[in-house]
Amino acid sequence: MKEVLIIDDEPKAVELLSNYVNRLPWLKCVGTYRNPLEALAFLQKHPVDLLLLDIHMPQISGVEFYRALPQKPKVIFTTAYSEYAVASYELEAIDYLVKPITFERFLQACSRCTKEETTVAAVPESNPQAQEIFIKSGPKLYRLNWEEVLFLEKSENYVVFHTCDRKILSRQNMQDVQEILPDFFCKIHKSYIISLRHLNVVERHQVSIGKHEIPIGQSYRPAFFKILSERWGQDKVFDAV
Fold first, then answer.
1. 127-136 b/e with 16+ CB inside 10 Å = b?
2. Collapsing DSSP states into helix, strand and coil, what is residue 184?
3. What DSSP element (H or E) covers 221?
4. Residues of the chain whose pLDDT is less than 70?
5. Across the strands, what pairs with 160?
6. What order of strands is seen across the sheet that includes strand 151-155?
């Protein structure tokens, strides 16, 4: 897992980048700083693998800050101004992201650094209800039992497999994944497929699985409650449609 430090004087940018980092299972955010001089003190005691570094900051530019570092981690520059691109490439930056930054563009940049872009391995068509799936993450292949999966989340061109203790990101179409799922999975939103075996609480507009609250799409609600009724009996499912 790569340790990441975020340095940006804009609170919204820090929040966005922190969210993006948390969505990638091979990255760990170890700190965020709006003041680059405070970040410098942190780096002197805590070296990191990757900097997400804003260029245009009031105290010192990101380019000047990076040049001043005695030990230079890998860096991805972020900025609202495209004119700094040449300077960033002279410093051998991994990438140069112009705001507003999409998650897909962020993922491309981080994949260059970590080489951890993930894909899901093919599941034999002869056994669409297989209890296990193989997911490739970088050079490794992970075996995942469907019983472990709490829910699946669509994130642009990726699917995130959520389990109790990890998230696995796969460059995969949600519809393709849905076709190989066991019958105890149910799509309740355009971006979510849940495991009925891990379902804890059902409300009118959302369900709870562990600590996760997942929305129920309006167009999916009737079919979802019909499945609940058929699975557990009408008397055990309240009328929330």
1. eeeeeebebb
2. coil
3. helix 221-232
4. 82-90, 114-130, 136-141, 233-241
5. 153, 169
6. 167-170, 158-162, 151-155, 192-195, 185-189
Q: Long-range contact list for 218-227, CB < 8 A, 24+ apart? A: 220/187, 220/188, 220/189, 220/190, 221/188, 224/186, 224/188, 227/186, 227/196
Beta bridge partners of 7: 33, 53
Q: Domains in the chain, start-ordered, CATH in brackets?
A: 2-114 (3.40.50.2300), 118-236 (2.40.50.1020)
Taking the C-alpha atoms of residue 217 and residue 214, their distance in angstroms, rounded to an integer, is 10
Does the N-terminal peptide bond of residue 100 adopt cis geometry, omega within 30 degrees of 0? Answer: yes
- pTM, rounded to two decimals: 0.50
Which residue reads 């939103």 in tokens?
A: 189
Contact predicate 11/58, CB 8 Å: no
Sign of CA dihedral 125, 199, 137, 174: positive
pLDDT in tens, 73-111: 999 999 887 665 666 666 778 888 888 999 988 988 888
Q: Which of 111, 102, 186, 199 is nearest to 152 (CA)?
A: 186
Q: Are 163 and 145 in contact (CB under 8 A)?
A: no
Residue 199 in contact with residue 207, Cβ under 8 Å?
A: yes
CA dihedral 84, 13, 153, 215 (to 10 degrees): -150
d(CA 66, CA 73): 9
- Write the burial class of residue 151 (CB in 10 Å: 0-12 exposed, 13-18 middle, 19+ buried): buried
Neighbours of 193 (CB within 10 A): 20
